[in-house]
Design goal:
alpha/beta, single chain
Length: 359
């Protein structure tokens, strides 16, 4: 008589052994090619180079960073994503805007700063964001402007324009700044997610399953390897020139809208680690950490950013900041695009030096 329990047990043991062997094989395959960290949090709690001299760095800061902003909301019948309000010691979101410090009590006009997570700057306290540094520079120059931070994680230029047009009142004399580029490459080309980031990941099922795969991949070397191969193949269908032309049109549309309202518009192409010349040892090792720098992403930027730059040269008010950290010895990069307080101050200073000529 066939003993079904024994057959099941033997098959389970064989399958278990095969899984272990498979994991061991892929562990040996990947361990020499990349450093292994499970998450941004695990990496950052080691206090990497950008945080070495940061006075705010602490377990309390990291725990608050891990929780912020407590979720996002989508405005009904739009692709507009806003961060939920959040109150903390280091990070605050009020009226769905990241807090900008040192704002004057009285101001004649507003500087509206739009961008993704690099403008929101969850990696630093409120006073160390790009808009907060810019506010201090304007105050010191005796310019009566209040700076507002409209940064939202992962959004693209089209979403920035939609939010500005539908939710922000632009007055004569106001300044609008778009600081972007990285998310348009990441979302629209790398993930083939044309609408940008929306709650639920949008309607792109391919993107949805990749997100699930990546979550599982954190705990499995074999699944991680499969994830890398699939992710690496994603951008091959992209028409980089066409995407750059679409990106240019979106920036132009925003410029025309602001000018028609009597405001001044500036666009800045944000820096990413892939663009930096003379990378130091830390940065070279950072590029190998696949949980922080997905495989294939650098290749996409090497093809996409040059096309973006070609198109943006057609605008008189677009500025390329991709080389902002070429001469910095200490790295500001916490991953491929997010930077520390020192990096934010450098960017704010560059933006200030440009806009101060016209105000």
């Amino acid at each position: 008589m066939i003993n079904l329990k024994k057959i099941f047990l033997y098959n389970f043991l064989i399958l278990f052994i095969l899984v272990i062997l498979l994991e061991c094989f892929f562990y040996l395959k990947v361990k020499n090619n990349s450093s292994i960290y499970k998450s941004h949090y695990d990496f950052r709690k080691l206090q990497p180079e950008p945080y070495e001299d940061a006075t705010y760095f602490s377990n309390d800061f990291l725990e608050e960073w891990k929780k912020h902003p407590g979720g996002y909301s989508q405005i009904l019948n739009t692709n507009i994503i806003i961060p939920n309000n959040f109150q903390g010691k280091y990070i605050n979101v009020k009226e769905n805007l990241r807090a900008t410090t040192s704002q004057p009590l009285n101001s004649l006009n507003t500087v509206h700063v739009f961008g993704g997570s690099s403008i929101f700057s969850g990696e630093v306290p409120d006073k160390n964001t790009i808009p907060s540094f810019l506010q201090v520079k304007l105050n010191n120059a005796d310019r009566r402007y209040i700076v507002k931070n409209y940064g939202v994680s992962s959004i693209i230029a089209k979403q920035q324009y939609e939010r500005m047009k539908k939710t922000v009142q632009i007055k004569k004399g106001d300044i609008v700044i778009f600081y972007d580029g990285a998310n348009d490459i990441l979302q629209k080309i790398y993930f083939n997610n044309q609408d940008g980031w929306i709650l639920g990941g949008g309607d792109n099922k391919e993107f949805y399953w990749i997100k699930i795969l990546r979550k599982i991949a954190k705990y499995s070397y074999s699944i991680s390897y499969i994830d890398k191969k699939i992710t690496q193949a994603l951008p091959l269908k992209a028409n980089f020139k066409n995407e750059a032309q679409i990106y240019l049109k979106e920036i132009k549309d925003a410029e025309v809208y602001v000018k028609n309202k009597g405001g001044k518009f500036y666009h800045f192409l944000q820096p990413v680690l892939f663009e930096k010349e003379n990378k130091n040892r830390y940065e070279k090792e950072l590029l190998l950490i696949r949980s922080l720098v997905p495989i294939g992403l650098e290749e996409v930027f090497k093809k996409g950013y040059p096309e973006f730059k070609k198109q943006l040269k057609k605008l008189s008010n677009s500025y390329d900041l991709t080389k902002s950290f070429d001469v910095t010895k200490k790295s500001p990069y916490l991953d491929w695009c997010h930077i520390n307080h020192e990096g934010n101050e450098i960017i704010a200073n560059k933006i200030f030096d440009i806009i101060i000529k016209d105000i």
